[in-house]
Design brief:
Structural class: alpha/beta
Bound molecules: 6-O-phosphono-beta-D-glucopyranose
Number of strands: 16
Shape: globular
Strand content: 15-25%
Length: 502
């Protein structure tokens, strides 16, 4: 029997999912595999349609084939899933049309109505904007003018799901929000930060808010400081032209790393599946001390040059990048969340491209014990809680233990769990979870307008300062290394260092 028939689905209501930018890279790499996987898991039911919309002229058959290629590129074995695929493919539709004129949208509206009559989905629509932000405004305007994304008298509101970047600074984020809010209610707007769809990130909430042991030490009394590292081993690949306009602070820090900080630092919401999660995150963002007065002491930027062994080229030699580009591919900063829980506890954030390994983790380092009763010569790595977000997902307490033997020698050990051995269940891709939540109309894992704006308000002054003081030392770290020396200095000045498991 096919897997899809083995589960009962109760909560999903019949729906239509429209993917704008359906011939694009994101749809091909992430959205199509995620939607099909949700179907295979039995989570979508049978009463739905998925409609691709893009400029490219394609027949429905071509689109079905394109969708299928995306799945096989992601290792899907059609022999095993052939029955499910046939049923799923029958739910696929395609509309080719422009974004700057209404014609295609009128055809889309007609198609939606006929599909809704068949699926009985009563205006339960999700529109995923998987397009460059330049066309967000056109899409919103047409959807709004044609009343395609409305709240029905039955209480169902269509949702629009949009991808970052949500602006490139506070002014543009506000303008984007203003335009979106002109066309839709805020509760209809689902801004994606795919980090919130990651299992290991959601697990931070369950770890914190179900374990008395952890929650009781999760504050300034026991935590010396927090480190958030998102190191990527790859460079910018074929995205040079795009990335060079952005840099790593806009691409990663203002959104993904800030979200990790919020989840780590926030107060418990009253309920987990509610808007209160977002209220709590905004409170954290508002409590972060502004950079003003501490730009050069509190933040570091970097750009990779070629690797020491010559195997990886430098950023300025990447395709689409200006030869004298001053765009940062690495950023680190020290932030303070000036509230009761975190008073005086620095949060060190760092992220970079082309680093020595791919590693995303959060480390909360405990304070020193009041008195060392063991040999003073034993200098050991500090204790803490390590949340390994990817790869090698897991959580551990880093602590000291006595090495067996006649002497009282201590060594750092870890006590914890690995996803690979603790759970038989597969971890869903972040997009699976987020698309599923958008279909279920559950906004808790999406970004609200005030979150993006508060976060931009924090980083704007730093970005302006960097713009006005071009770096004289770029490139300042070798590809496949651990980043610029200044990032080590950032912690060293405070008598600390970046955590390393080895
Ligand atoms: C994206 C950034 O949002 O996140 C990319 O634009 C980055 O530059 C990517 O590589 C990292 O995501 P993940 O899930 O691979 O850690």
């Amino acid at each position: 029997m096919n897997r899809v028939f083995m589960k009962t689905v109760s909560s999903v209501k019949p729906f239509s999912l429209v993917i704008f930018g359906a011939s694009g890279d994101l749809a091909h790499r992430k959205l199509f595999p995620a939607v099909f996987e949700l179907y295979l898991q039995g989570l979508l039911g049978e009463s739905f349609s998925v409609i691709g919309y893009a400029r490219s002229e394609k027949s429905r058959g071509d689109f079905v084939e394109f969708f299928r290629t995306s799945l096989s590129d992601h290792g899907k074995k059609f022999e095993e899933e052939s029955q499910a695929w046939e049923r799923f493919a029958a739910k696929l539709e395609y509309v080719s049309g422009a974004y700057d004129t209404q014609d295609g949208f009128i055809r889309l509206a007609q198609l939606l109505e006929s599909l809704e009559a068949r699926n009985l989905s009563h205006g339960n629509r999700v529109f995923h904007f998987s397009t460059p932000p330049q066309v967000f405004d056109d899409i919103s305007t047409h959807l709004s003018e044609l009343n395609m994304a409305v709240c029905t008298p039955g209480g169902i509101c269509s949702r629009i799901v949009i991808e970052k970047p949500f602006g490139r600074d506070l002014a543009s984020a506000r303008e984007l929000n203003r335009r979106l809010n002109k066309a839709f209610l805020e509760k209809q707007i689902y801004r994606i930060d795919h980090y919130l769809g990651k299992e290991t990130v959601q697990n931070i909430l369950s770890l914190r808010f179900t374990n008395v042991l952890l929650e009781s030490v999760w504050n300034h009394r026991y935590i010396d400081h927090v480190q958030i590292t998102v190191a990527e081993s790859l460079g910018i690949g074929s995205r040079g032209g795009y990335y060079d306009q952005l840099g790593c602070t806009r691409d990663m820090v203002q959104n993904h790393l800030c979200q990790l900080l919020c989840i780590t630092a926030m107060e418990p919401p009253n309920y987990i599946d509610s808007d209160e999660v977002r209220d709590e995150k905004v409170k954290v963002l508002k409590a972060i001390r502004p950079f003003e007065g501490c730009f050069d002491q509190c933040a570091v930027r970097g750009q990779y040059g070629s690797s020491a062994d010559g195997s990886a080229k430098g950023y300025r030699s990447e395709e689409g990048v200006l030869p004298h580009s001053t765009t940062e591919t690495f950023a680190a900063c020290k932030l303070f969340v000036d509230n009761w829980r975190w008073a005086g506890v620095p949060f060190y954030l760092r992220t970079g491209k082309c680093m020595s390994s791919r590693r995303s983790e959060i480390f909360l380092q405990f304070k020193e014990i009041p008195k060392n009763i063991f040999s003073a010569q034993q200098s050991l790595a500090p204790d803490g809680v390590l949340m390994r977000l990817q790869p090698d997902e897991g959580v551990s307490f880093v602590m000291k233990a006595k090495v067996p033997g006649p002497e009282m020698n201590l060594r750092s050990v870890e006590m914890g769990f690995d996803y690979a051995t603790s759970f038989a269940e597969r971890s869903a891709d972040a997009y699976e979870r987020l698309i599923y939540d958008a279909i279920l109309d559950k906004p808790a894992l999406f970004i609200r307008a005030d979150e993006t704006e508060t976060s931009w308000a924090l980083f704007d002054p730093l970005l302006n300062h960097w713009r006005d003081t071009p770096p004289g030392d770029f490139p300042n770290y070798a590809a496949l290394s651990d980043g610029p020396a200044a990032a080590e200095e950032l912690l060293k000045r405070d008598g600390r260092r970046w955590f390393s498991r080895s």
